[in-house]
Specification:
By secondary structure, the protein is α/β, with parallel strands linked by helices. The protein has 20 helices and 30 strands. The relative contact order is 0.08.
Length: 631
């Protein structure tokens, strides 16, 4: 049973509710969500809902239909995001866990950690206690292995996931590990589950070889049931079927099923799922496409010499290639691979800077695509500051009202957002980063509105341009321009219009509690917008060891034949790659142009610095807009 609390309930009311649950012989577990908070009533006895319905602060009392309660979406609507320092598992991120099957010795473990950390992998796996089918096979290094994992963490900063096999080992494994893994063979080791319910460390619970999803979730419930440990990560690792061509059969069905039934993050282990090195990458990609929150991969410096699971272990080159493919796939399903150098750090005011807030300014209302881009870059906890216009964003950054701003500069269907190019030149800001977002547009209306009722569309001109093909199918609709996608949803909501619709993100529909009449109306699904992150003066957005590999600048040439050619020649001669060129009219000088150029490299690279020096001889004005890691 769950007791849904009224929004704005007092803490005294909550205490009284919890006391009455205890008096009824059950245990209360408070679950705070974004939309609602609930007290789950945990205990064997079947209680009457009437016991709690009349208490002050109670909105509703509901029975939970599932045998697992704290793990179910019915009890907690919001996704659980398991946090270990700056690593987050769940939500919009795809986490990568990788490492050898077993910790074999110091050399191979540290070498693995260094290779993987350089690629941006955030979590190192490796078993110190190994569940082996044969008693004569390598059983793991035990505590010595845990000590090596600790050393690898100190060396690289990676978090550690490692298996615990017995209840009496929970304490020692928890001393070294960041995440305790419960292996497939132990999914129903209830004493082990109960022991893990008493600790404050995330638990990665693998699916049993022949466990149903419902049995698996009940095992998760054991860990959650005390209310002390809320951090369970589920790991699909393949199940036993009649098929013998692979070690196990990856049950990718489990991913959407779990996302529907539970709020817990779901990761996939295609190494044990297939048992064959060459099948791991295709299944890892399929898992991410199916919505998994991460993958666990086995790899080894010399797979053929591995003491366990060599045939399914990847080489480091194979891991690197797979990560690139996963980075390409993740945005299609609205996710981002959280590699260490791309992990969004909370936007903090610079120590010596003058920003008074750590917020990120974006143009539009809550639910705008720009806000999603801000969260993609800075993480789901970033404070965002809605702003009325792009100019407003730039002004807030320069005034120090916010630490950062984020604005779109180009879209794959609609082209450049010219105003932001002009503002970049006008304001004293630096580009400190960029991010690319897949943009899926939706036709959004008030509840009760049908497609046939629509006469007017409120849309941002860019959004309308990106949905041109869909809009052409409805020639009688009049299109009214609004300079804010989420704001257009707010407008028709406030108007209570039943003959109008807006074009915006599903987040905006959710934020304003509106209906989506049609999903995915952009003319081409390859619809991506590139956003740049702005700061006043050079400011590190705290993104760790990100490699600076892009330079943006703007310049003006003299108005004479060959002038542009000579500026471009300086880059060609030094072998500097030009990845974008955009021209804009110079304000107040009709038919004279500014050129916005993006280069591959760091301003401190010899070739780039040399080219910039040479450039000065051929131009009348130049401003380096920023040197930053590309998205
Ligand atoms: C492992 O991850 O090392 C392992 C033994 O996996 P599973 O429990 O899924 O077989
Ligand atoms: Mn293994």
């Amino acid at each position: 049973m769950i007791i849904v609390l009224k929004t704005g309930h007092s803490s005294d009311e909550l205490v009284a509710i919890e006391e009455s649950v205890k008096r009824a012989g059950a245990s209360p577990v408070l679950i705070e969500g974004k939309e609602r908070s609930v007290v789950a009533v945990i205990g064997a006895a079947k209680l009457e809902t009437a016991l709690f319905e009349q208490l002050p602060g109670v909105a509703q009392v509901m029975r939970v239909s599932k045998p697992y309660k704290l793990a179910s979406r019915e009890v907690k609507h919001d996704d659980t995001i398991v946090r270990i320092g700056d690593v987050a598992i769940g939500g919009d991120q795809v986490v990568i866990m990788a490492g050898p099957c077993s910790v074999e010795n110091r050399k191979m473990l540290l070498e693995s950690a260094q290779h993987l950390s350089a690629m941006g992998v955030t979590i190192l796996r490796g078993g110190a206690y190994k569940p082996r089918t044969s008693p004569y096979a390598f059983q793991g290094m035990g505590e010595d292995g845990l000590k090596l994992l600790e050393e690898a963490r100190e060396l690289t900063g990676m978090k550690i996931v490692t298996e615990v096999m017995a209840p009496d080992k929970v304490e020692i494994v928890a001393k070294y590990a960041d995440i305790l893994q419960i292996g497939a063979r132990n999914m129903q080791n209830f004493d082990l589950l109960k022991e893990c319910a008493e600790i404050h460390k995330p638990v990665l619970l693998k699916r049993g070889l022949s466990a149903t999803i419902e049995e698996w979730l009940q095992s998760a419930e054991y860990i959650l049931s005390t209310g002390k440990n809320r951090d369970v990560i589920l790991c699909e690792r393949g199940i036993r079927t009649f098929e013998t061509a692979t070690r196990n059969t990856m049950d990718l069905n489990a991913i959407p099923v779990l996302h529907e039934r539970t709020h817990l993050p779901v990761i996939v282990d295609p190494s044990h799922g297939t048992g064959v090195r060459s099948y791991v990458a295709p299944l890892a990609m399929a898992a991410i496409a199916a919505g998994a929150d991460g993958v666990m991969l086995e790899c080894h410096p010399e797979p053929e010499k591995a003491l366990s699971d060599g045939p399914q272990s990847l080489t480091f080159d194979m891991v690197e290639r797979l990560l690139r493919d996963l980075e390409a796939i993740a945005p299609v399903v609205g996710k981002r691979v959280a590699l260490a150098h791309k992990i969004p750090a909370a936007a903090k005011p610079a120590k010596k800077g003058h920003a008074t807030s750590e917020a990120v300014a974006f143009q539009g209302e809550h639910g705008a695509f720009s806000e999603k881009a801000a969260r993609q870059f800075f993480g789901d906890k970033a404070k965002t500051s809605p702003s009325s216009s792009f100019r407003d964003v730039f002004e807030k950054v320069v005034a120090g009202d916010v630490a950062f701003g984020i604005v779109p500069v180009e879209n794959t269907l609609g082209g450049s957002i010219h105003q932001n190019y002009d503002l970049l030149c006008e304001f004293d800001v630096q580009i400190v980063g960029e991010t690319k977002l897949r943009v899926v547009h939706n036709l959004i209306a008030n509840k009760g509105t049908k497609l046939a009722d629509i006469k007017r569309i409120y849309a941002h001109p860019q959004a309308a341009a990106q949905c041109e093909r869909f809009l052409r199918q409805h020639p009688t609709w009049s299109i009214l321009q609004v300079y804010d996608t989420a704001g257009s949803v707010k407008m028709i909501k406030e108007e209570k219009a039943l003959d109008a619709a807006a074009i915006a993100s599903s987040a905006a529909a959710k934020h304003f509690d509106m209906d989506i009449l049609k999903e995915g109306i952009e003319s081409d699904p390859q619809n991506y917008t590139r956003f740049i992150v702005l700061a006043h003066g050079p400011r590190d957005p705290g993104r760790g060891p990100a490699k600076v590999d892009k330079v943006s600048l703007v310049y003006a040439t003299e108005n004479k034949p060959g002038a542009l050619f000579r500026t471009l020649e300086v880059f060609a001669k030094r072998g500097v790659n030009l990845c974008r060129l955009e021209s804009r009219p110079i304000p107040g000088k009709p038919f004279e142009y500014l050129f916005y150029v993006d280069l591959t490299g760091d301003v401190h690279d010899k070739s780039v610095a040399g080219a910039l020096k040479d450039l000065k001889e051929h131009i009348t004005f130049v401003k380096v807009l920023g040197s930053y890691p590309s998205a």
